[in-house]
Amino acid sequence: MRTFALSFCATAALLGLTVGSGSAAVSSADRTFAEKAASGGLAEIQAAQLAQQRASSPQVKQFASRMITDHTKANDELQQIAEEEDITLPAQPDQQGMAAQRKLQALNGTAFDQSYAQQQLGDHQQAIALFRKEATSGQDPALKSYAQKTLPILQQHLQLAQSLRSVR
pTM for this one? Predict the structure, then answer.
C-alpha cells in the first residue's frame, strides 16, 4: 500500500510538471502585440486591395500589390504562432483600421493615391514601433522571433511608402 501511494504521488507530480511546462501562459503584452499585429495586417491588406481598384498611379498599384503579398504572408505566419500559443486573433481590422478604410472608399484617382500614400506612412511608422518593442522586449520566444523577422520588411515598406509622396 505504501509503495502504491508513493508511486501515485510520483506519477501525479510528474503529470503536474508535464502539464505545467506544456501550457506556459502568453503574457498580456505579447497577446496584445499579436492582436494588434494581426489587425494591422488585415487593415493593410484591405487598403491595398482597394488601392488595386481605385488608384490611378501604377506606382501606387505596384506598392499595393507588394502590401498584399507581404502582409498576407506575415499574417499567415502569425496565425500559425497564435494557434500554437492558443491566442485568438481578430478576423477584421480594429476601429481605427475600419475608419481609415471608409475614408479611402470615398476617394478615387489622384485623391485616392495621395490619401493612401499618406495613410501608409503613418500606418508603417506605427507598425515599426509596435514590432520594434516586441522584438526587443517580448517575452514569448515565437512572437519575439516573428517580430524580429518581420521588422526589416516593415522598414522596407516605410521606405517604399515614402517614395509614394512624389506621386501626383
Answer: 0.83
